[in-house]
Amino acid sequence: MGFFFLGRLLSIFGIGINVLTYIVGRNEEKLKQRIYILAILFLNSCGYFKNQKNDSEISSDMETRIDSILNSENFDRKIFYEPISLNFKGKAILRPGQKLDALDTTLSFRYDPNGGFWDKFNLIEDHLSLDDNLSIELKEGSINGIFFFSSDQQEKQIFNIAGNWTIATEVSDENEDQIIEQITGKLFPCLKGKIVFEENWKYENKKRDFVEHFKLKSPKENGYSWTMDYEVKMK
Fold first, then answer.
1. Which whole-number Å values give the CA distances from 34 to 8, 15, 20, in the listed order?
2. By the number of CB atoms within 10 A of the CB, which of 10, 28, 80, 227 ranks highest?
3. What is the pLDDT of residues 62-107, one digit of tens each?
4. 98 in helix, strand or coil?
């Protein structure tokens, strides 16, 4: 990039030389005017060249801005975080700090235009997954999951993890145990013996460097069916 602007500067010098050559023999007033114009072009070019950022400066600026966002989320790049409790095909789906290219290649996910960092897309990218393995078919109805996470645009490390599961069936005494068994067997083993379908049920699963927050919302609260919110908060 620097060579380009240096070449531009030298080309202006060449134009200046041609101008001086051309004005030899002209009157003094015109000479002053042309030298003045040449000086303006020269100073403008110097200022333009000086204000350009090279690739390393741009990268450093980007890293500083990303680090500021990660710090606000209490995310530390230096920590090797343990996996979260959500299972995908029988094993932990990911861990905070994991890179995107290390995710299970069969996990389907896409860009989330409505994510929490939508206005910082050049620094952070939001993702969502509606993968079939995050949902469960019941005898009657289903449990439909949507999983959210973000990654920085420089190191591609994952953070800002959350999810929501809608229990698309009427929960009753007859099927409550079956639903709980499906949730704890396929998705969240850590909720075995913990989850109860009652209003305002909450649970915190505390890990070394983060806490997983679970919350059930009843049909009375959200107006349509039971839902379970999930969010990972860094310590």
1. 20, 12, 8
2. 227
3. 999 999 999 999 999 999 999 999 999 999 999 999 999 999 999 9
4. coil
Distance (Å, rounded) from C-alpha 15 to C-alpha 11? 6
CA atoms in the 13 A half-sphere facing the CB of 127: 19
What CA–CA distance (Å, rounded) separates 76 from 67? 9
Cα 10 to the center of its chain, rounded Å: 43
Amino acid identity at 75: F
User: Which of 176, 195, 192 minimizes the C-alpha distance to 184?
Assistant: 192
pTM of the model: 0.75
Distance separating alpha carbons of residues 161 and 215, to the nearest angstrom: 15
User: 193 with 129: CB under 8 angstroms?
Assistant: no
